Amino acid sequence: MKFISKELIVDEVSKLCIEACTYIDKEVLNKIKLCCEKEVGLSKNILEQIIENDILAAEENIPMCQDTGVVVAFVELGNEVFIDGDLTELISLGVKKGYTEGYLRKSMVSNPLKRVNTKDNTPAIVHIKTTLGDKLKITICPKGAGSENMSQVKMLSPSEGILGIKKFVIDVIKNASGRACPPLIVGVGIGGDLEKSCLIAKEALLRDINDESSDEMANKLEKELLKEINDLNIGPMGLKGKTTALAVKVNLFPCHIASLPVCVNLMCHASRHKEVIL
């Protein structure tokens, strides 16, 4: 049995929140730079500004975007780990500490109808998966409202198949246009039930930007969708261009014979997630 103190969890989550909002993933930045080389005119200028912004954020230790999001935490909890406290509560305490000490914008309201700000960006949205072993892995993903508001889920008929899936994804991207702050990372969750498709779509956004699905059909779908999305000419920030999406990530899960759940979860160019293993 491995003991992990509540103080350590709070401190580590606090650090992850600040780091995730400040430092963009290097591979994502490299991908933006590669796309910038293919653009001209206004679209190239926009990508250059995004690159400059991300570099300055890291150098100055300030958020890369004013919307520092709702904190989504993905946790893998080993069965040999003992924690002296409620893990979900400890993660929210870490969020409170990080967003207060890091001077990050507080965006959470305590009641979606009354709309009163909690003033510390809590609570976090926490997903816990149990695993074997003595490790605790916490991945923090601050999710901004721009891309999240443009995300959608749909229960398709199995007869609609891959063509129906592709049409739905493309329709979501068209509807989002510049409002989701492209270039995007597109997470597609196929299967499970309604809420499971949403979860695996969000988990898809945590994959490495250069990672490709090991499933042959999903891999093919990722490549086809990326091409079709970029052929839409929506471009950076919706102002035309070749780079509407940086990547498409498709995650699959078994589903009912009469269902074909599909969720499209969008992530803006400020792709933010950090992890720690304790």
Written account of the structure:
The protein is of the alpha/beta class and 278 residues long. It folds into 2 domains: 2-20 and 64-143, Dihydrodipicolinate Reductase, domain 2; 146-271, no CATH class. It is 40% helix and 24% strand. The strands form 3 sheets. The protein has a 4-stranded mixed beta sheet. It has a 4-stranded mixed beta sheet with strand order 6-9-7-8. The longest helix has 20 residues, at 41-60. The mean pLDDT is 98.
Summarize the helices and strands and which ones pair or pack.
Blueprint: E1 2-4, H1 6-22, H2 26-38, H3 41-60, E2 70-78, E3 81-83, H4 87-101, E4 125-131, E5 136-143, H5 145-149, E6 152-156, H6 161-176, E7 184-192, H7 194-204, H8 216-230, E8 245-255, E9 260-267, E10 274-277
Parallel strand pairs: 1-3, 2-4, 7-8
Antiparallel strand pairs: 2-5, 5-10, 6-9, 7-9
Helix pairs in contact: 1-4, 2-3, 6-8
For the termini, the CA-CA separation is 13 Å
Structural class: alpha/beta
How much of the polypeptide forms β-strand, as a percent range? 15-25%
Would you tell me the overall average pLDDT? 98
Give me the number of helical elements. Answer: 8
User: What overall form do the CA principal axes indicate?
Assistant: globular
The helix content is: 40-55%
Give the tally of β-strands.
10
The major sheet is characterized as: 4 strands, mixed
Spatial ordering of strands, largest sheet: 4-2-5-10
Query: What is the element string, with H for helices and E for strands?
Result: EHHHEEHEEHEHEHHEEE
Q: What Rg do the Cα atoms give?
A: 19 Å
Residue stretches low in confidence (pLDDT < 50, at least 5 long) are none
